[in-house]
Amino acid sequence: MEVKNAEVISFINLKGGVGKTSATINIADAFSKDGKAVLVIDMDPQFNATQALLNHQYRYHKKNIEQDVLVDIHKELIEKYNEVVATNTAQEEDNEEELNPDEEYKRELSSQLIYNRLKSKKITVRTLFTYEGIVEGLDNPSLIYKLKENLDIIPGNLDLFETLTGDTSGKHNVLQDHITEYGLRELYDYIFIDCPPNWTILTQASLFASDYYIIPSKVDLFSSVGIGLLESLVNSTFYEKKSPIYTLYNVYRRELARPHIQPLGVLFTLTHEITIEGKLKEKLKSKIPLEFFETEIPYHSSVPLKFSLYNESGAKHETLKNSVSRAILEIFERISLKKKEVVVNEGSGK
User: Fold this and answer.
1) 149: helix, coil or strand?
2) In which element (H, E) is residue 177 found?
3) Which of 29, 126, 273, 280 is least enclosed, having the fewest CB within 10 Å?
């Protein structure tokens, strides 16, 4: 099997409602369709990425779900909800046409029951922040759940909110330790982390393990404030010697033979083709000392408000799919450029 060397990229914005999770899962899906092995780590306690990807799997890639799990779900739907859905993994996958509300609800409920089984087996990121895995032992200690070809996930967990209270010392490196212990960099081309929209131990652990980060952002007057604050926090945590974790972080990055975390840029999302928004973009670009992606992910009113993969939306939303395709090419190019800059700096002794 080919040994890989994954790029670990966090998607983060301290402001919610900017299309962060949608950008994360759609870029991950696009890379996987391009033949890259991709792992999504859902570090956001709202775990919307997990819900969207499990629902996508149940609707379009049911053959990847174990047959006994489908049988159990079928029984539970009948016993508890008096509902029936097909369990045959050999059946054709759903097409891109919209389901009626009743069928859509049944499928979402079925994917939720799959999640409940993962959670009961402690196959979520919460296990990283507790001692349950050590004390009780796990059937799947890597915490990885296979969604479809080239796309896996370490599921999120609402109970992650519990990790935000109490002593967080010694937890900044838990995600990086997990990636190292199970050789995840060697298994994937890309590892994408969906971060919470706040500065907590969950966010810091995500960035601690990351090589790069992308800031999805709407075009509005509050963006410059949130992005500026994020940059300040990243620099003070990972670059300044007075940071409580500076020494530890340096040790880890040296062992990985990788530089400190770097921004890949701001990715405008939910954009509109209106004059005032164009002026706001230029204003933000002049105020924020970061690079901006040339690609933008547009807003489409006819795309469901739920977190979903754009390839579910059919041919009428080719604009969205094309924008994601351009985004993955730009991400690849930006990483290549960053690596060249590192080589040049090392050669000049900087």
Assistant:
1) coil
2) helix 174-181
3) 273
